[in-house]
Specification:
The protein is an alpha/beta fold and about 260 residues long. It is built from 11 helices and 8 strands. The chain has one domain: Rossmann fold, CATH 3.40.50.300. The longest helix has 18 residues. It is globular and about 50 Å long. It starts with a strand and ends in an 8-residue tail after the last helix. The structure holds adenosine-5'-triphosphate and magnesium ion (MG). Adenosine-5'-triphosphate binds next to helix 1, strand 7 and helix 9. This is Chromosome partitioning protein ParA. Pfam families: AAA_31 (PF13614).
Length: about 260
């Protein structure tokens, strides 16, 4: 049975896509079978996996509208060694196209159910909004992974996200939980970052990942080559940090490294 995680934060540019692509590649490196679903019309995760978003068809859009099955839309990330459901700007219209359709919140959950046995992990890269696409991800997810920068307003920004997760729990998915808060682009020399990090631990306890992702320029460069960082520079700090995150994810899930789930 696969573990299904939504990677979400309605704040833009906090490292959701970087985490989705590199956690997917790192879990694959550790022998896990991984599917990454790109739920953002920006298509950044698609491109970061080495797939050209402009010509990708079908995409998650056709899946949500029940025009194709998920098995017919997935592609392979060659450099990442995992499967991808691509996305592009066409998905921006999904909210409107879905509005009058039945079970519009549950489309993705239903589609994923058909392939769940083929994967150990399914990761969903969410857009920077709490819209119908994100709700579809939360309805399908067992847990939410929240990447965040340790900035002044970081905790306040979490309030809306936690409220949305609560609503989804009441209405659509009683089992959803927060898998973890991941500190990204972390600068250990910053006193503010340390303070916010301490506050996070006070509020969320062991739901804060032990692994911290440092600011690392190789992580920012890799997507422009269509590569996860492991395939771009496997010795860099960013690559090591995401491998640590994958190991921590397996540990939390009770899976020994190298063993299939
Ligand atoms: P959006 O909300 O637009 O979808 P996002 O939350 O998915 O954004 P990313 O695209 O992953 O965020 O990251 C935003 C920018 O920061 C990108 O240019 C990315 O390359 C860079 N970045 C992400 N993580 C790191 C890091 N640890 N070190 C350096 N740069 C990073
Ligand atoms: Mg993104």
């Amino acid at each position: 049975m696969s573990r299904i995680f939504a990677i979400a934060n309605q704040k833009g540019g906090v490292g959701k896509t970087t985490t989705a692509v590199n956690l997917a590649a790192s879990l694959a490196e550790l022998g896990q079978r991984v599917l990454l679903a790109d739920l953002d019309p920006q298509g950044n995760a698609t491109m970061g996996c080495g797939i050209e978003k402009r010509t990708a068809l079908p995409t998650v859009y056709q899946i949500l509208l029940n025009q194709v099955g998920l098995a017919d839309a997935r592609m392979r990330s060659g450099p990442g060694h995992f499967d991808v459901i691509p996305s592009n700007r066409e998905l921006a219209g999904a909210e409107i196209d879905l509005v009058n359709l039945e079970q519009r919140d549950l489309r993705l959950k239903t589609a994923l159910a058909g392939v769940a046995d083929e994967y150990d992990f399914i990761l969903m890269d969410c857009p920077p909004t709490l819209n119908l696409l994100t709700v579809n991800a939360f309805a399908a997810a067992e847990a939410v992974l929240i990447p965040m920068q340790c900035e002044y307003y970081a905790l306040e920004g979490l309030t809306d996200l936690v409220a949305t997760i609560k609503k989804v729990k009441q209405r659509l998915n009683p089992d959803i939980r927060i898998e973890g808060l991941l500190r990204v682009m972390f600068d250990p020399r910053s006193t503010l970052a340390q303070q916010v990090s301490d506050q996070l631990k006070q509020h969320f306890g062991d739901r804060v990942y032990d692994t911290v992702i440092p600011r690392n320029v190789r992580l920012a460069e890799a997507p422009s080559h269509g590569l996860p960082v492991l395939a771009y520079d496997r010795q860099c700090k960013g690559a090591k940090a995401y491998l640590d995150l994958a190991e921590e994810t397996l540990r939390r899930a009770g899976i020994a490294v190298g063993e299939a789930a």
